[in-house]
Specification:
Length: 117
């Protein structure tokens, strides 16, 4: 089974958001938060190993997938992209708050606690 969506966003800076039981990986663009789906084995076969291991690619015009080894936390994504990252956050992850603005306030508190460390 081949599942793939075009990487229309034009960026090549991905992280694996999740992998389902059928082996389909959801990749999230770190630059614009667009998500695409690909078969996990294809991601492993077509990713740039230099970028995956070091976070840098020395090849000019590298057309392989640049997948980061570690995904960003919700707090990191929130600090970069703001509240729009909360649009796709499952409700069970945000069940500690009744309203989205409460989630934003909690994230701001977490981020300020993080900065004070």
């Amino acid at each position: 089974m081949h599942v793939s969506l075009a990487t229309d966003c034009g960026h090549n800076n991905w992280e694996t958001a999740r992998i389902n039981k059928k082996g389909i990986a959801t990749l999230r663009c770190r630059d614009c938060q667009v998500q695409i789906k690909k078969v996990q084995s294809e991601v492993v076969e077509t990713r740039c190993e230099d970028f995956y291991q070091t976070g840098k690619c020395g090849a000019k015009g590298c057309d392989t997938l640049h997948v980061n080894q570690h995904k960003q936390s919700l707090e990191e994504r929130y600090s970069i992209h703001g509240s729009r990252v909360l649009e796709n956050v499952p409700r069970e992850l945000s069940s500690f708050c009744a309203k989205e603005n409460m989630i934003e306030l909690e994230l701001e508190r977490l981020l300020s606690d993080w900065d004070e460390r």
